């Protein structure tokens, strides 16, 4: 919860500066083996103490990706961590959209 207009402006500035701050810290974080990263309030990417940050590193297809959840200090951390853990390649969710002319077993209706 923000307490003033200045708090809100700081959050907007933090989000605007996020790509530049990520670039500065990315090399250090990518070499770290401790994942996911959880910062409640104060964190290295944002100056605002009103935001929390969760980060997850995923290696897939020869590339390295970082996913973030940014939210208020009172966000649901367990739910966000579950979401980030589901993004790991070995836990990729596979689903298929059912077409209008298909039965439950996947065959086409006659």
Model description:
This protein is an alpha+beta fold and 110 residues long. It is 33% helix and 21% strand. A three-stranded antiparallel beta sheet has the order 1-2-3, with helices on one face. A hairpin with a 2-residue loop joins strand 2 and strand 3. It is globular. The termini are far apart. The model is unreliable at 92-96 (pLDDT under 50).
Compile the SSE list and pairings.
Elements: H1 5-30, E1 37-39, E2 51-60, E3 63-72, H2 77-86
Antiparallel strand pairs: 1-2, 2-3
Keywords:
single chain, 110 residues, alpha+beta, three-stranded antiparallel β-sheet, 2 helices, globular
Task: Please give the order of strands in the largest beta sheet.
Answer: 1-2-3
Distance between the termini: 56 Å
Q: Give the low-pLDDT segments.
A: 92-96
Order of helices and strands: HEEEH
Mean pLDDT: 80
Roughly how much helix do the residues carry, as a percent range? Answer: 25-40%
* Largest sheet features: 3 strands, antiparallel
Rg, Cα atoms, Å: 19 Å
Given the helix and strand composition, which structural class is it? Answer: alpha+beta
**Total E-strand runs:** 3
User: What does the overall shape look like?
Assistant: globular
Q: Helical element count?
A: 2
Beta percentage is 15-25%
